[in-house]
Amino acid sequence: MDQKELHELEYKCIQECAPWCIARCPAHVDVRAMNAAVAKGDLDLAAGVFLKKVPFPHIISHVCDHPCENVCRRADVDDALSIRALEKVVMQQASSSEVKITRLRSKNKRAAIVGGGLSGLTAAVELAKKGFDILILESSDRLGGSLWEYSEEELPRSLLNQDLELIKKVPVELRFKAALGSDVSLAELESDFDAVYIGIGPGIQLPAEIELDNEGRPIVDPVTFQTSRQGVFAGGSILTGAGDRSPIGSISGGRRAAVSMDRYMQGVSLAASRENEGAYETRLYSSVGEIEPQGRILPAEGSTDYSAEEARREAERCLQCQCLECVKVCEYLQHYKGYPRKYVRQVYNNLSIVAGQRHGNLMINSCSLCGLCQEVCPEDLHMGEVCKAARYTMMDQNRMPPSAHEFALRDMEFSNSDLVTLARHEPGMTSSTYLFFPGCQLSASSPENVGRTYTYLREKLRGGVGLMLRCCGAPADWSGRGQLFSQTLADFEAQWHALGSPTLVLACSTCLGVFSDRFSREKVVSLWEIFDRHGLPQGVDSGQVATVSVHDPCTTRHEPKIHDSVRSLLRKIGFEIRELELTREKTECCSFGGLMRFANPDLAEKVIQRRIDAAPETLLAYCAVCRDHYASHGKPTWHLLDLIFGTATGDAAVYRGPYFSQRRENRARLKAKLLREVWGEESPDYKGYRDMKLHIEDHVLQLMETRMILVEDLQKVIAWAEETGNRLVHKETGRFLAHHRPASVTYWVEYTPADDGYTIHNAYSHRMELVEEIKR
Amino acid sequence: MSHQVDVKEAEHWLCSSCDVPLESRTVEVAYMGSKYPVNLPRCPKCGIVFVPEDLALGKMSEIEKILEDK
User: Tell me, what's the ipTM?
Assistant: First the structure.
C-alpha cells in the first residue's frame, strides 16, 4: 500500500464526514456535538462547542436562518431538531456565554473593512485576532447594519448590543458616517491599506472600479471572495441580495473573506486547500433505523424558550448521525474499537514500520476476509481486501508472525499429501464430463457424505463423473502465501487437465470462489445446483419437518443461484425457512474465513456466538466448517447433505464434529475406502501417523483442540522420549512428562504407559526453543 | 522474560534417567532470532529442562507474541 492507495481507501470510508446539519451550516457549527452535550445536561460544554464557530452568539441563537434544520435527518422519523432553540437555551443558561478572543502578535499590516454589519464585523474580528490592524468604516452612526431591523421580540436590543460590544475586545479603529464613494474612495483605501473588505448591504452604489454582474452585485471568486480588483474582497448580503439574507451566511462569508485577506497580505496562495468551506453536500450515509416517532419537544405553555430539561429531551432526539454500517454488522470491526478509515491508516503504519513493535499484526490477521463490510458500505470499501493485501506484504517483508497460520497450513499440506489426494475418472470410464471436488473440509467432517454424494452424482450425471480429493489452496491465499497458493493451484490444474478439464462439481463455496477466480465460472457448478436440478435421491425421506434458518457460507455472498438452490431443496425436503436478518449476500462468516479462528481464537469465539445469538431456530449449513463451528458451540445445526440423504437423525444436529486429528484421519481414510469400494483396489486402511495407541480423555482432547496439538504430535514426543529416556517422572503419580520439538513447536506430554499404548493426561506447547544439550 | 521463574511445581518432578531432583539453572531460550538466558529447573546431571504448563501458556506465550511482532 502506498500513500496514494492509503488516501483513496481513507476517502472511501465516510464515517468522519460531517452530518447534514454541520455540512449545511455555512459556519459549520458542530451541531451533533452540541446536541450530545445538551442531551447530557452539560450546557457549559454545549456553549463551548457553539462559541467555537460563532463570534456573535446571541445574535445567531436568536435570528439564525438555521439551514441546519432544513436538512436534519430526524425529519425522516418525525420532526427536525429545533437546533436554534437549543442554541438559545445554551446561551441563556450556560454559566458563561462569554466569547474569548486572543490576538496574535501584530503583523504590521492594515486592513479596511467597509460596512459594520455582521459580515464586516466577523471579518474584522477574525483579522484582528490574527494580528492585523483594522479600520471599520460605517456609513451610519452605529454598528450592526440591518440587524437593527429585527423586532425586539426577535432580537432583544440588550443582547444585540452585548454582542456588538465584542468588537471592543480587539484593537479596531471605528469611523462612523463614513460611506464608500462619498466620504472615502476605493483608491484611497487601496493605497492606505494592505487589503480591503466590502461588506455593505445590498442596493448601495459600488465604486466603478469593481466589476458587477447584471444584477448589480460584485463579481467575486466563489472560493476566495476576491473581487475583480486584487486585494479587494466582498461578502455578506451584498452578494445574496436582501431577499436571501442569511445571518449565518454573513458570518461564514466574513470569515472566509478574512482567510483570503490574511493569505493575500502574507503573500500565499488564496485558493489552496479550501475544500468544504461554506455550506456543502456531505458524503455521509446514516441509516435512520427503527425509531419510534415522538415529535418535536415544545416549550411549556406561555413560554417561547426551552427549560434546561425540555432542551435535554429535545436534544435527545438528535440521531447523532454517523455511518458505521460495517461496524454494526461485524464483530471484528467492532472489536478494534474504530472504523475502516482508522483501520486502513493502522494497516499502512504497520506495514511502514522499520523498527519497533508492529501492533497491527493481529488486527490484520484477524479479519475473516468475508466482505460483509463491502456489502453494506455505501462506498464499497472492503476491509478484507485491505487485510489480505497487507498479509501478502507482510510475507514479502518476512514479517508474518509464524504462529498465526502455521497450524492451518500444516493441515493444508496434509490434505495435499499422497495420503489424501486422489484424481480419477469414474470406474470403467476413460474420460470425465464432470469432476466431483468435495473439498478438504467436507472430507474431514463427513467422509460418509462424500461417498454418498459421489454415488448420487454417478447415477444422475452422464458422460463420466471423476473424483478429486485435495485442498483448493485457499488457506495459502488467506495467509498471504502467494507462492504456495500458486503452486497449489498449479498442482490442481495439472491433475485437472490430465483428466480432460471436466466441469468441476463443488460442494464447498470457498473452492468454488478459488476456481472461478482462477479459471472461469463456466467451468464450475455448485453441488447444490445439481441436487436441485436432478432431484433428491430416490427413496429418501428425511422424516423431518421443521423450521430452520439457513446460514449461507460467506463465500457464497455473490452466488444468488446457490442461495436459491439451497432454499428450493429445503422446500422439496419439506422444511420451512425462517431467514436470518443477515442472510444471502449479507451473510456472516463462521470465523474460519481468512483463518481468523487460527490467528485470533478469542475473537472467533465471539463471532460464532454472535451468529448463534441471532438465530432462534435450528441452523442449516451447507458448508462443513460452518456446521461444525456452530454445532461445537452447542447450536443445533444440520448439514444440508444430512437432510438430503435422510441421515439427519438423532443428535446429528448437535454432534460437535471431529477434532483436528480426526479430521486428518478422516481424509486419509476416505481415500483408502473409496479406492477399495469404488475402484475395487487394494488399499490398506489409514492407521494414523504411527501405530501407537493413545488413550486420551475428552477434556484433554478439547485442550488439544484449543492448543492446536495433534495426536501425531503426542506420538512423536512419546516415541522420542521412550527411545532416548529423556523424560521427567512425577514423584507422587509416577506419570512421565516429556518434550520434543519435531519442527517449529515444542510439545510437552504428560503420560503413563498402558498395556496397549499410553494414557495421555495433559499436553501443551510453546514456540520458543530451549537451547538444551542433554548428556547421556 | 524475568530471569527468575517461580516453579514450585518443579519440586514434584525428578529426572527419570538420572533419578535426581531438578535444580534451577540458567538455560537459553531462543525465538525469532533472539536468545535470552532464563533460570529454569533442570537436571544437574544430564541437563534435561522442565517448562511447567503455566509458564509455557503464560509468560512464554506473551513473549513469543511480542517477538513475533518485532
Answer: 0.96
